[in-house]
Amino acid sequence: MGETRGATDTASDAGPPVITGREPGSFARGVLAERHPALIEQVREAFPYGPRQQRALDALLHEIVHGVVEPLDPASPDAGLWSARGPEYFGRPWFDAPFLWSESYFYRRLLGAVGYFEEGAWQGVDPFGPFKRAELVGATVDEELRSLDDLAGAPAHERATALLLASLWGNRADLGFRGTAGEAAPGEADPRLVADDSAVLWSLLPPGAPATVALIADNTGRELIPDLVLADHLLEHGHARQVVLHVKPGPYYVSDAMTADVIDCLRRLRDAPGEAGRIGARIWGAMGAGSFAVRTHAFFCAPFPYERMPADLRAELSAATLTILKGDLNYRRLVGDRLWPATTPFAELTAYFPGPVAALRTLKSDVVAGLAQTTLERLERSGRAWRTSGTHALIQVCARPAGQGLSGPPRAG
């Protein structure tokens, strides 16, 4: 199904400014000018690519730093798709395009440079695979899995709260945000959520209701494992009859989860001792029974807000009792990657969504909405880079009954 054309992701409409990399010193500028070139070098070092891939990586590095946005090779199977997605950005500096678009296109170009789509030895080889697999080993993961033993005997409501927060804060385990190799992790987390609609979230999933939860994943590894544990809790305690985990169809934003990553995380859980192993075995069995399902859609790798989701994805999410979106990128796509006033109501920006929707997100970009004025003032007085440091988090819910989201064209601006 085609992507819906809307005005919400263009730089010229009357809404708040769409975020680009034009502003020197901005977060978006730093990602485009510093993080992306560093990632090219890290990917190059992770694999013994041949001369063809090395030349393509050199060309991409030069282009994003010194050149203009080039279109895909006409022979690429998705060349026409990307030509339709943003023809006005080709031939212009990367910094001029909407940040959401330029980030997404960068990852498409990086995959093309390493031969991911071409027939040959490197076809289908995930360039971020080594980084993802490293997330699943080591003492930190062992300790996090052992902590599930302590929760096993806790009252259900305490366990539910702890697992929801674990899924939320697991979003800090973002390899793209940390630079993928050696860059410092985010600073100490502030336990005070900047917005907390967790009570509303649980009210939508009372025990015993025949609920379906759509969980749109973000990162694999140390974020996806808590997501899987939360899904198990929803099923085991009757908050959901089915949990559908939506993942990316291909490598994206370094650590974004694909089906292969889900299986790696499930194996890590299943092979662990104690409660972690029991959870892993239950989810493994739930996949066979159909109560836990993994799905994907090409739109999850598109450079647009969710307002432009195609009709088939909209129909699927409209059938969910609640859709939970994980992470910073999904949040940007949910509310629109714009410089919204931080007190703009979350429900206003998500009114188009086809059913109740929740966002679990640690803040790692400039976009934020739905904050109370007093909270915003406190954050601004702190002197910290609270919007982009990964030290603050939120749980926001738009609890409109299913089917009351807008079903027609996306709103403009």
UniProtKB/TrEMBL annotation:
User: Is Iron set as a keyword in this record?
Assistant: no
* Cofactor(s), by name: Mn(2+)
Q: Which InterPro entries match?
A: ARMT-1-like_metal-bd_sf, ARMT1, ARMT1-like_metal-bd
What is the official name of this protein in its record? Damage-control phosphatase ARMT1 family protein
Keywords in alphabetical order: Hydrolase, Manganese, Metal-binding
- Matches recorded under SUPFAM superfamilies: AF1104-like
- Note the superkingdom of the native organism: Bacteria
Please give the start and end residues of each transmembrane region.
Answer: none
Q: What reaction does this catalyse?
A: beta-D-fructose 1-phosphate + H2O = D-fructose + phosphate; beta-D-fructose 6-phosphate = dihydroxyacetone + D-glyceraldehyde 3-phosphate
Region of interest (Disordered), residue spans:
1-22
Q: Where is the signal peptide?
A: none
In which organism is this protein found?
A: Streptomyces argenteolus
> For the Damage-control phosphatase ARMT1-like metal-binding domain, which residue ranges apply?
32-373
Short name of any one Pfam family annotated for the protein: ARMT1-like_dom
Q: Which PANTHER family match?
A: DAMAGE-CONTROL PHOSPHATASE ARMT1
The UniProt family comment states: Belongs to the damage-control phosphatase family. Sugar phosphate phosphatase III subfamily.
